[in-house]
Amino acid sequence: MGGSDGRTGDAEDSGSPGDTDGGEAGPAQPALPSEFERCLDDWNRYIGCFQREDPADPADPAETVPAIPPVTITDVARFAPDGALVVAEPDNVGVVGLPTNFVASASAQTVTGELFGYPISVRFTPVGFDFDYGDGSATTTATGGQSWAALNQAQFTPTATSHVYSERGEYTTAVDIRYTAEIDLGIGWFPIDGELTSEGSAQQLRIFQAHTALVAHTCEQAPSSPGC
């Protein structure tokens, strides 16, 4: 028990495998890859490389659960959907004092790519629409709105995304869409904290002033009457 030779495993170990009886070194043995390198080389192995121990019982291997590398909302920003173009009804024109209906189309999207050298899927879900009406007014809604036809409503009736202008003129409108994100690195979907905003493109809108006149007959009765 007391005859230890004191070797520490450094390079001067005369008992290395491959030594000949004459003390000459044999062929150099290739270094074994580290566990981390094996993870990088084999995607299937990577899934099992990121494990964390359950704090309740860190000594029990059965209590370990899969974990993923830390990924932030900023890391997946480059995968975010492009901004949307808001459409105003009817035909990007409106009338002073009457509702102009705004619609922005967006839906859940899944994008695939590579992050930190690994394949990744990112799923974006729209959760907020920030409308800028161009006259100093804005509103935030949970949906992008629908056309009057889809809502089975008559033109110039209020909707959740409509706006009433008080003055005629041209206005620059836009909508920014906010998304939440989830990622899948091969072991299921995981939510990412925070939101991403895709800025919308500007849309020009013209608002007209309507004038009315009292007439004695309808246009059918008197086609040459004012307004006919």
Short note summarizing the structure:
With 228 residues, this protein is mostly beta strands. Helix content is 8%, strand content 33%.
The overall pLDDT, averaged over residues, is 77
Give unreliable regions as ranges: 1-20, 43-48
**Helix segment count?**
3
User: Would you give the CATH topology of the largest domain?
Assistant: Immunoglobulin-like
Alpha-beta classification: mainly beta
The fraction of residues in strands falls at: 25-35%
End-to-end C-alpha gap = 116 Å
Number of domains: 2
CATH superfamily of the largest domain: Immunoglobulins
- Tally the beta strands: 12
- CATH architectural arrangement of the largest domain: Sandwich
CATH class of the largest domain: Mainly Beta
How would a textbook summarize the main sheet?
7 strands, mixed
Shape: elongated
Report the radius of gyration as a whole number of Å. Answer: 34 Å
Order of helices and strands: HHEEEEEEEEHEEEE
Secondary structure: helix percent: under 10%
Please give a structural write-up:
By secondary structure, the protein is mostly beta strands. The protein has two domains: 35-66, no CATH class; 77-208, Immunoglobulins (Immunoglobulin-like). 8% of the residues lie in helices and 33% in strands. The protein has three helices and twelve strands, in the order ααββββββββαββββ. The protein has helices spanning 35-41, 43-49, 148-151, and strands at 51-52, 65-66, 87-89, 93-95, 99-103, 109-115, 118-132, 138-141, 163-164, 169-184, 189-198, 203-208. The strands form three sheets. Strands 4, 6, 7, 8, 10, 11 and 12 form a seven-stranded mixed beta sheet that branches. α1 (35-41) packs across α2 (43-49). The longest helix has 7 residues, at 35-41. The chain is elongated and about 105 Å long. The termini are far apart. Mean pLDDT is 77; it is low at 1-20 and 43-48.
